[in-house]
Design a protein that fits this description.
Length: 73
């Protein structure tokens, strides 16, 4: 029954990928980038949507800043 096993593996892979994609869209992975220059706020960089955020309590942001477009200087 090689085809059944192959089908199960493929379906499981699709489900896993879809679940991970949904999860990554909802939950952001924040990476600590150190302290902001001149202040005591912590700089964070989102690994899932490349958003940048700053917090004052040294904790990662609770919501993503992907909708906040950075002002181009
Ligand atoms: Zn994000």
């Amino acid at each position: 029954m090689p085809f059944v096993i192959l089908a199960i593996v493929v379906i499981a892979g699709i489900v896993l990928l879809a679940g991970r994609g949904r999860l990554s869209n909802r939950k952001c992975k924040w990476r600590k980038e150190g302290l902001r220059h001149g202040t005591s706020s912590t700089r964070w960089l989102c690994m899932t949507c490349r958003a940048e955020a700053f917090t004052w309590d040294a904790l990662p942001p609770k919501e993503c800043k992907r909708d906040v477009r950075p002002t181009q200087l």
